Amino acid sequence: xxxxxxxxxxxxxxxxxxxxxxxxxxxxxxxxxxxxxxxxxxxxxxxxxxxxxxxxxxxxxxxxxxxxxxxxxxxxxxxxxxxxxxxxxxxxxxxxxxxxxxxxxxxxxxxxxxxxxxxxxxxxxxxxxxxxxxxxxxxxxxxxxxxxxxxxxxxxxxxxxxxxxxxxxxxxxxxxxxxxxxxxxxxxxxxxxxxxxxxxxxxxxxxxxxxxxxxxxxxxxxxxxxxxxxxxxxxxxxxxxxxxxxxxxxxxxxxxxxxxxxxxxxxxxxxxxxx
Length: 275
What we know:
Elements: E1 2-8, E2 17-24, H1 30-40, E3 44-52, E4 55-61, E5 66-67, H2 71-84, E6 90-95, E7 99-105, E8 111-116, E9 121-122, E10 140-143, E11 147-151, H3 155-160, H4 165-174, E12 188-194, E13 200-206, E14 211-213, H5 221-232, E15 236-241, E16 247-254, E17 258-263, E18 265-272
Parallel strand pairs: 2-3, 4-6, 11-12, 13-15
Antiparallel strand pairs: 1-2, 1-18, 3-4, 4-5, 6-7, 7-8, 8-17, 9-10, 10-11, 12-13, 13-14, 15-16, 16-17
């Protein structure tokens, strides 16, 4: 079976967020998909089921669980489909519980993904342990259905913060909620601040899902971009996720509670896996 590995949200190899992509005519057994994701040991492995040349279903697995939404693996999957599976410049992913993601590819290769927004709200009451997950002061806490979002005082605080993964795990275990699609829907942790060179910077942690620090998290920016759009009074933003690999996301707020998140991708590997 053919498998691709693609670096997402970057134009350079060894940057951005690597994702594995497998395109099939029928779903593999769920346990097999989870085993493949665990074997790959990447933040996400995406499985894409072909409906026709312009329509596909998609599922995403971390090394530990199936997740309900993954932006960078959607970008990687789109890159693979545009490269080897369709001549269309627009395709649609049909996603359980999230509807349709419309994806287009510009002439320069940039892939534009239309997602629902996940607007966060400010919270005054939150787990006391959140004050200990990084070694920097927290100015405010927001949350959406995906993560607690910690607002830091500066770009430097986001970049230089040292996360306490044991504490993040403790919060996840204490506030875990079971769902139909994932083994755990415990909230992840995002850090963010405004930036001199970008509109905002961010980092993202989910050790309870097998991802200590996610290099670039497209799904989280469906919440971060609306937050900063309101703070900065603008609808078009450029974000940088400041992990060791790093990645750039181009975000545009759209009507009807939608957001376009765009980026580039680079093929690292094509392989045959023996099942």
